[in-house]
Specification:
This protein has 1475 residues and is of the alpha+beta class. The chain is 36% helix and 20% strand. It has a five-stranded mixed beta sheet with strand order 39-40-41-42-46, covered by helices on one side. Strands 3-4-5-6 form a four-stranded antiparallel beta sheet, with no helix packed on it. Helix 29 runs antiparallel to helix 30. The chain is extended and about 135 Å long. About 15% of the residues have low confidence.
């Protein structure tokens, strides 16, 4: 219920304080990160309260109780200093501004809220995660309107995290942006936050993390949790089921997200890293990670380091260094009462802690490097750990007992599950002890039996002896040995405590009746009985056997449910060895001072006769036993103390555990008090703990299933019998161990400031709170009795005639007067005489007179009920009176009709019943119980009214159920219901359910369409199959093709063909997909590095010829797989596919889509190739090649040409009709593009020993500039430089390349090995002469002139608009606008050097258009490479690499450049190639 505050640093954290105020579990917490407000925080609890705290005073600033349901999420807005947003399980969101005590309530979705997060960039945006996997973003300034509804998760949303940086320009650039913002120091404005958007991360139980785009309202990245195998062992099968996926987006690392995983590991996700594996696990060594699932993550900066904090189901708080991803420190905590403490006798300083959260902690208290060196054990433990005991000689062997009666042994040096004894106790195990074996385990030689065995004592009063060698065997009840050895015939008392003397010679057993029995090992002969205590024995401890005085080893201390500790010395009894058991009735020492039951004792191993005790009075007391003197009293705990251990290695330290979820380490010498609190204070504390008096509890009977009272005669009966043993059986565990009465049972919540702890472990000098604060929940004892009392109280029913009853409880004289008055009335002469009508004081006598008087009594009683707010009693009186119609009418007018009154209505007649049912239905509608109202309307056979009522309020499912059951199948109301419901579902995004609605309305077309709305391949496939079943073949074909395209984008050609083969009409598309698959596979094999992608392609296993051309391979597959053999088939498929037109390719066309367009054109080409329609084939080939050229993907165009035309396209010329000018023009364009690719291949692929290798700088420059057509907007420039620029370019070229003579020979000696290669390159260069078309150069020149003139006109219009705007503004704005509207430097230069008027430009444009009209249509319409660009490349591709350009080609190039050089593009082209 409390909140612990720590001051975090890279070393061990310091305790700051505690926030105390909530009465139930704390469900949410948030610090205020607003600048200047960091000393505030907010918390929510299951008690329905949201509190605002001041961290400096640790006090509540304000609070609100606006929620009516359990609060499930809380966050303090980073943008508004006083805004706290909270959500509950019913979907209510409350915004609370505590400075002005204002609040707003929103209900965005009728779903259970799991988490919420306020935007760090916009003060009005709040993201909310729901249980069903929906994430919504609401705007609180618009009454909680849902801005975005994000769907994608399949299970509950566990956490949300906003990206700390605004904008969605790309995750890879986030790091630079955040650093730039940090340097500038300027905050991001809200307007920019909305326009630029922001990312939001969500973690879900469906094992995925999704990163959402605010602007696009969809997921841009999905991260799947990996299944990590634990170091040193395999992961449990149930680990995947136990998942809480929390995500955290640190402020300083905007490209990284931290998240939890299945088994307690933490992952760092790098969102900017390519590839599938984006995660790195935190913790470089074993044991650094949590052992169970992680619930929460947060980061902060301390001491110049970026730290990450995590808290887990293992109840450890861990601190991580984000620079090294290693754990800095671990702070353990507890989740239950501390029931048991035990120091290992072998491993010095190793303390075992048994806790009520079903876990054991082993704390190495002497660890130097890590003050909190704690290891947690939880496997095999399903209940509270109530007892612990270390093996006396075997290292790491720890025995434990639990609340459910289980006994087991852990090996703390391994990760193996514990060994569990097959013998279970029926009740809680409260004591464990290792000791020498007793019969029957003591029989046999030393090698045949264990040297020590394990003894357990539990709440049913039985002590078991377990064989540690064979825990699976049956344990033995030592009562049998005790009976046989001591010849006992009577019933043995129930045992509650056991303790072996350290040397193993004597066994002390404490009993429920307060007696202590001393037995001698190994036969367990009874030596003596100590009859001192009168109540149940809770603790027995033997003095250590290394005292200076040997006789002290025979001292035994005991504590019980009364507050006195007795110490007995049985040395004389042992030495005398009496034949018969001796009874001891006088103690050796009596230690009185505690005011409540004693729960545990511990002797100091460093002193003689020094004892520490703990009690339910909330204190620990150190005693000098021999002097019977209290020495030191510790009051640091906030609850009842349950266990104590004196440190075996540090004489000045004592460890105590309590029901305040804490283990404290303290120094006796530092305590201010010497004895427990006395007098009235202790009495009041004791009264607060017990909510019901014991005297009252004794008078009550024991309720079924509750704790026995003091009257019980069970094994644990007797006054306060085993309260410590029995009470926990009624308590819940884990989150648990708490009740509504618990706060009243604790001590004061203030830490005693006058009880200083040990300085090395003190957190602050003024607050002596121990740092080892393992927290936990339940109260162990008395309060259950009070709950039993309250459960047995039955509420007395309210009297229906209270006036009459009260009048009959007046004084005796007044009652006598009533008798006289009643006798006078009844025995007067006129037996029918009534009481005076005005005798209002005597109306109660109407019960004994005639009917009219009774009616007046009923009227008075009814009026009283109405005045007191009990109309149901008034109505009941009206029914008794027989005025049923009046009762119904009165109840209807007041809106107080009930089911009972409606059930009575038929007694008043059919019409009255109909009227009552209609009135009750209206009342139910006002109360928003529409389903129940519809049921009552159905009782009147008003089916249509009931259906309309449910439909109008959104209960479509219920309305359909009624209509389907009560109306005719062809009734239009039923179809309208289905349609209306489907429309609502479609609007909300529930497409599958909406499709069911449309199917119910006999609208399969709409069902298929709505099913396809999600757009993924599974939805499209289902929609196609649905449409096919319903007979909508055209719609099914459409969805099948869309589904195939989605599968194609995922590179799943197998799935795409499976979808398409269901429709014969899609055979043509199947051929396109087949060619696309073969083409993709061929491209991947030719360039595996460039085509590498994260997704693995799914190809068919078709058997193809590897020695033939690509065209032959495709046609072979078509014939063998798809059965396309005849020319008629090919012609029909061609006619079908040619009608499909795809949009022109641009630089923004995705590569996969571009390849599909090319595949479509190639399919048309191959089909016409198959049917010998060569003119169409050439046009289709040309379209396929130019699509890559138009999209700016020059490399793809080259690869297509090389695959389709490995030896060129000359063979097509022979097939064409020479008289067909259009087909010949298409062929020349195709031939030009093939040569264009070949030309650049020569330009980029240099000989290995060329002189260019000596000049790497120029080579890289040229290649980089030339390769830009692959990725840029254009495929090359097409203009000239001026003559000076050309001469300058040639001069700079001469600096890098040797001069050649007139014959083209280099001045240096040619290298003979390269002569063949050079000849081959020269031959290829000659084939590129088809690019030097003067017709195309002329057309391109005119087109460039037209484009230039149009651009100049556009600039003039733009400048004119700016001038008009400047004239309409003020002088000051004039200067600003003029400064901002200056044209670019290039434009200004053009305007100054070449001033144009509008008529001149229009004249130039007209002339250019006339020139263009003179050219042939085939030349203008068909694409052709830029001729001037090709001239430049050809002129400069030969000389530097030892290849002489053909003189005729060289002359032609120079001629074209000289004739058509008059454009600005020429300068850009020269600069592109040679600078």
């Amino acid at each position: 219920n409390n909140i612990c505050l720590l001051e975090v640093r890279s070393g061990v954290p310091a305790f700051h304080g505690e926030l105390v105020g909530h009465t139930e579990r704390v469900s949410g917490f948030s610090f205020c990160h607003y600048p200047g407000q960091t000393n505030y925080c907010a918390s929510s609890s299951d008690d329905g309260v949201v509190k605002i705290w001041d961290l400096q005073t640790l006090a509540t600033v304000t609070e609100h109780t606006l929620h009516r349901n359990t609060i499930s999420a809380l966050h303090w807005s980073p943008q508004v200093k006083d805004l706290v947003v909270s959500g509950d399980e019913k979907g209510i969101v409350i915004c609370y501004w505590y400075n002005r005590s204002d609040s707003q309530q929103f209900f965005p979705e009728p779903r259970t809220i799991f988490c919420l997060a306020c935007s760090p960039h916009h003060e009005n945006l709040v993201a909310i995660g729901y249980k069903d996997g929906i994430v919504v973003i609401i705007d609180i300034s618009r009454k909680g309107e849902v801005v975005h509804r994000l769907r994608g998760h399949d299970d509950e949303i566990h956490s949300l995290a906003w990206c700390p940086v605004v904008g969605e320009e790309g995750l890879c650039n986030r790091q630079e942006e955040s650093q730039e913002d940090a340097v500038n120091g300027c905050p991001l404005e809200e307007v920019a936050a909305v326009t630029k958007g922001c990312y939001l991360a969500s973690g879900s139980k469906d094992q995925t993390i999704r990163v959402w785009s605010y602007t696009r309202s969809r997921a841009v990245m999905t991260l799947k949790l990996p299944f990590l195998k634990r170091r040193g062992g395999s992961t449990e099968s149930a680990v995947k089921e136990r998942l809480w996926l929390t995500v955290h987006w640190p402020r300083t690392q905007p490209t990284q997200i931290f998240s939890s995983c299945f088994g307690g590991e933490l992952l760092q996700w790098d969102l900017a890293q390519p590839g599938k594996r984006k995660w790195v696990i935190l913790g470089s060594s074993e044991g650094q990670n949590h052992s169970r699932i992680v619930f929460n993550l947060c980061s902060l900066q301390a001491e110049g380091r970026e730290l990450l904090l995590s808290i887990s189901m293992d109840r450890d708080v861990k601190c991580w260094d984000l620079a090294t991803l290693n754990c800095c420190w671990t702070m353990p905590s507890l989740g239950g009462f501390v029931y048991s403490l035990a120091f290992s006798p072998v491993d010095t300083g190793c303390l075992a802690i048994g806790v009520g959260d079903s876990m054991i902690r082993v704390w190495k208290t002497l660890s130097i490097n890590n003050h909190y060196d704690v290891k947690t054990f939880w496997q095999g433990i399903k209940s509270k750990v109530t007892a612990l005991s270390w093996h006396p000689t075997k290292e790491g062997c720890l025995a434990f007992g639990t609340d459910d009666g289980k006994v087991g042994v852990y090996d703390t040096y391994s990760n193996k599950p514990p060994q569990i004894s097959s013998s279970y106790h029926k009740k809680t195990v409260y004591a464990l002890a290792w000791g020498p074996p007793v019969p029957p385990l003591s029989f046999g030689g030393d090698g045949d039996r264990p040297s020590v065995t394990l003894y357990s004592c539990a709440g049913e009063g039985i002590v078991f002896q377990h064989n540690p060698w064979k825990l699976t065997g049956e344990a033995h009840d030592i009562n049998k040995v005790i009976r046989e050895t001591n010849s006992i015939k009577h019933k043995l008392p129930a045992h509650t405590e056991i303790s072996w003397k350290p040397d193993g010679s004597l066994l002390a057993i404490g009993n429920e009746d307060g007696s202590i029995e001393i037995f001698q090992a190994p036969e367990l002969k009874l030596l003596c009985t100590i009859q001192q205590h009168q109540k149940l024995i809770n603790a027995i401890r033997w003095h250590h056997d290394h005292a200076a005085q040997p006789e002290l080893s025979y001292m035994i201390a005991s504590g019980s449910n009364n507050a006195v500790i007795y110490v007995h010395n049985i040395k004389n009894v042992i030495e005398n060895s009496p034949e018969r058991p001796v009874t001891i009735t006088e103690p050796f020492r009596t230690l009185a001072g505690h005011t409540a039951k004693i729960t545990s004792l511990s002797w100091s191993p460093h002193h003689d006769g020094r004892l520490v005790s703990v009690s339910y009075d909330g204190t620990a007391e150190v005693w000098d036993v021999l002097k019977e003197e209290p020495l030191h009293n510790y009051r640091g705990h906030r609850g009842r103390l349950l266990c104590v251990q004196w440190s075996p290695v540090e004489a000045d330290f004592i460890y105590t555990g309590a029901d305040d979820f804490c283990v404290h380490k303290w120094m006796p010498a530092k305590q201010e008090y010497s004895r427990p609190p006395q007098g009235k204070k202790s009495i009041e504390l004791e009264k607060k703990r017990s909510l019901a008096l014991k005297t009252k509890a004794k008078k009550k009977k024991k309720p079924l299933g509750k704790v026995p009272s003091t009257q019980d005669t069970s094994v644990n009966g007797g006054e306060d019998a085993t309260e410590a043993l029995l009470e926990e059986n009624g308590l819940s565990d884990q989150e648990g161990e708490k009740e509504q009465e618990e706060p009243a049972e604790r001590l004061s919540t203030e830490v005693y400031k006058d009880s200083p702890t040990c300085p090395p472990f003190a957190c602050t000098p003024d607050i002596p709170k121990p740092p080892v604060s393992f927290r936990t929940p339940p109260v162990r004892k008395d309060h259950i009795k009070s709950g039993s009392d309250s459960s047995m109280k039955r509420k007395k029913p309210r009297s229906i005639l209270p006036l009459s009853t009260s009048m009959d409880h007046r004084s005796k004289e007044e009652l006598h007067q009533d008798c006289m008055r009643l006798a006078t009335c009844l025995h007067s002469k006129d037996q029918e005489e009534d009481l005076p009508s005005n005798s209002g004081d005597h109306v109660h006598l109407g019960l004994f007179t005639n009917r009219p008087t009774l009616y007046r009594l009923v009227e008075a009683e009814g009026k009283s009920h109405l005045e007191n707010g009990h109309p149901e009693l008034f109505q009941q009186l009206m029914v008794w009176k027989g005025d049923l119609k009046g009762a119904l009418q009165s109840a209807a007018e007041r809106g107080e009709l009930t089911d009972q009154l409606v059930a009575f209505a038929p007694m008043a007649g059919y019409q009255a019943w109909v009227w009552t049912v209609e009135a009750f239905a209206k009342q139910l509608c006002f109360q928003e119980q529409h389903v129940k109202a519809a049921s009552y309307l159905l009782s009147l056979h008003k089916v249509y009214e009931a259906v309309e009522l449910l439909k109008s309020h959104g209960f479509f499912r219920e309305a359909i159920a009624i209509a389907k059951a009560r109306l005719r199948p062809e009734d239009p109301v039923l179809k309208d219901l289905y349609t209306s419901w489907a429309v609502v579902l479609e609007k909300d995004g529930h497409y599958s359910l909406a499709a069911k609605g449309y199917l119910g309305a006999a609208s399969p077309y709409d069902a298929a369409k709505v099913l396809s709305k999600k757009g993924d391949h599974t939805s499209l496939k289902a929609a196609a199959e649905l449409a096919l079943i319903a007979g909508e073949k055209d719609l099914s074909v459409t969805f099948s093709f869309r589904c195939a395209q989605e599968l194609l984008s995922a590179k799943n050609w197998v799935g795409a063909q499976e979808v398409l083969q269901k429709h014969e009409s899609l055979l043509g598309h199947r051929l396109v997909f087949c060619l696309n698959e073969l083409l993709h596979k061929c491209l991947s094999e030719r360039n595996p590095v460039q085509n590498r992608s994260p997704s693995t392609p799914c190809y068919h296993s078709w058997v193809v010829r590897q020695d033939g051309s690509f065209i032959e391979m495709v046609i072979t597959v078509w014939q063998s797989i798809f059965g396309v053999h005849s020319a008629g088939q090919a012609q029909s498929i061609f006619d079908q596919l040619r009608t499909i037109q795809y949009p022109p390719a641009t630089c923004n066309t995705p590569p996969q889509q571009l390849l599909f367009y090319i595949s479509h054109e190639l399919t048309l080409a191959l089909l016409t190739h198959h049917t010998a329609l060569w003119e169409e084939a050439v046009k289709a080939f040309l379209r396929a090649v130019t699509r890559g050229y138009d999209a700016g993907n020059f490399t793809l165009m080259q690869e297509i040409c090389n695959i389709i035309f490995p030896t060129g396209c000359d063979h097509l010329r022979e097939k064409l009709d020479s008289s067909d000018a259009q087909s010949l023009a298409a062929y020349r364009s195709l031939q030009a593009f093939v040569a264009y690719g070949q030309l650049y291949h020569l330009w980029w692929n240099l000989p290995g020993d060329s002189l260019v290798s000596e000049h790497p700088r120029l080579t890289s420059e040229v290649c980089d500039k030339e390769q830009s057509p692959l990725y840029g907007q254009s495929n090359g420039a097409s203009a000239f430089k001026s003559a000076e620029d050309v001469q300058d370019t040639e001069a700079r070229t001469d600096e890098f390349f040797p001069k050649r003579d007139n014959n083209g020979a280099s001045s240096e000696t040619d290298s003979s090995p390269n002569s063949n290669l050079l000849k081959e390159r020269q031959a290829k260069l000659r084939t590129c002469g088809v690019l030097l078309s003067e017709e195309h150069a002329a057309v391109q020149s005119v087109q460039r002139d037209i484009s230039r003139i149009q651009q100049t006109l556009a600039d003039m219009i733009h400048q004119h608009q700016k001038n008009n705007l400047q004239q309409s503004t003020t002088d000051e704005q004039d200067s600003v606008e003029t400064q901002h509207s200056q044209p670019s430097p290039n434009q200004n230069m053009n305007k100054v050097s070449e001033p144009f008027s509008l008529p001149d430009l229009m004249k130039q444009l007209t002339e250019a258009n006339q020139k263009l009209a003179e050219f042939s249509t085939h030349i203008k319409d068909l694409p052709f490479p830029d001729v001037l660009e090709c001239c430049l490349v050809m002129l400069h591709v030969g000389a530097p690499w030892g290849v002489d350009l053909d003189p005729e080609l060289q002359e032609q190039c120079l001629h074209l450049l000289q004739k058509y050089k008059g454009t600005d593009m020429y300068k850009e082209a020269c600069r592109k190639f040679f600078t």
